[in-house]
Amino acid sequence: MAYVIAAFLVFLTTGTAFAYLMGATAILAFIAAGYPQYLAIVPQRIFSQLDVFAFMAMPLFILTGELMNRTGVTRALIDLAMALLGRLKGGLGHVNIMTSLFFSGISGSAVADSAAVSNTLIPAMRERGYSPYYAGAITAASSMIGPIIPPSIIMIIYGGLTGTSVAALFVAGILPGLLLACMLFGMNGWLARRENHPGGDTIEVPPLRASFLRAAPALAIPVIILGSIVFGLTTPTEGAALAVVAAILVGRLLGAMTPKLFYEAAEATARLTGAIFIILCAIAVLSYLAGLLGWPQLLSGWVESAGLTGTRYLILLIGVLLIAGMFMDTPVALTLLVPLLAPTALLQGISPVHLGIVVCFNLCIGLITPPLGKCLIVVAAIAKLDYWRLALATLPFIAVQIVTLLMIAFFPEISLSLPRIFGFKVD
């Protein structure tokens, strides 16, 4: 097995794509463990891992986000947020958070959110006298609402890996996402007063009625998605298809939908979906080997012998995922660690829905933490900011997100109350 670890490190230093890195390492590990005969079953295992109806929703939600990004929806949402909150102290910071809250119900992706908002709001905040690094920090931090408020791409992945209801996960993400938004509003308000950020009655804002009417078609999309899923009219996959149709209609209403735009959105969707699924294939091979070697059972035995049950195991899980999120892409960490760590948590009686929200929220914090915070990288590149200075400016918001994570982890009803109200089985 030492040769396998050495091969992994060699592949890693050569810049090999993660999917190929994990796939090659898994194949070598089969040989080193003395199970080469099981490699004949690997293709079947890969297809069985991916043959999950919920996974079909993923490319459809990605396509919805791509279409909305390209049809001017971001500008309409920003104008509405500006009309509502622009005159408060630190108003543009509040507008940034509110825009991410609106956008989260459409894209389901933190990276898409940070890219869309960075192009518009960071220059506006700089013009009004905000520090460019504060503008970048709040943009990156608020983009994390995207994967928590439904629809959420990573919740679809978690649901497919664990067999948890995606609809229940979507409903469970609403209150945690709103709680995170409220915590970020509070931090921005406190910093606005401490740093004397711009804001007040002199700020010019767009008219509320016109802004609402322009943004209303876009705001209707998350209502359509959640309403159809929660009331049993559609499955999450059917709801995603309905969202694509709604996104096309919204694009037509805004006068921006063209065949070229649709083709570009479909092409971007295919690239991102392919990247995610090839990672899932590679992790499926490694998960198969882990099952043969009994790694989950060994971990469960070690956890019990060490007395890490209940709250202690949850703290361990949070710590591991926070560290993993700092160094790994979210879908990668999710597909690699959930099959290993989730069974032990579920055996201890933790709700799979509650665990899903904690895991997804936990890993998303990694999107704004160095050294590999993807949202930080996107914001720094678009706004032409120094990455490490931006990371330093983001620290207060990271602290707020960790506090919010602990509240969600140790008060399960924040996640589970809405699913119970709507009749979902969460235990």
Total strand segments: 0
Tell me, rounded to a whole number, the average pLDDT: 82
The proportion of strand residues reads under 5%
Distance between the termini: 39 Å
Q: Please count the helical segments.
A: 21
What is the SS-derived class? mainly alpha
Q: What is the global morphology?
A: globular
Helix content: over 70%
* Tally of discrete structural domains: 1
Question: The biggest beta sheet, please?
Answer: none
Low-confidence stretches: none
What would you report as the Rg, rounded to the nearest angstrom?
22 Å
Q: Please write the string of helix (H) and strand (E) elements.
A: HHHHHHHHHHHHHHHHHHHHH
Main location: membrane
Organism: Billgrantia aerodenitrificans
Subcellular location: Cell inner membrane
Domain TRAP C4-dicarboxylate transport system permease DctM subunit: 6-414
Topology:
Layout: H1 2-13, H2 18-32, H3 42-50, H4 57-70, H5 73-85, H6 91-107, H7 110-127, H8 132-142, H9 153-162, H10 166-172, H11 174-195, H12 208-230, H13 236-253, H14 259-293, H15 295-305, H16 311-327, H17 330-347, H18 352-365, H19 374-383, H20 387-410, H21 413-421
Helix pairs in contact: 1-2, 2-14, 3-14, 4-13, 4-14, 5-6, 5-12, 6-7, 6-8, 6-11, 7-8, 7-19, 8-19, 8-20, 9-17, 9-18, 10-21, 11-20, 12-13, 14-17, 15-17, 16-17, 16-18, 17-18, 18-20
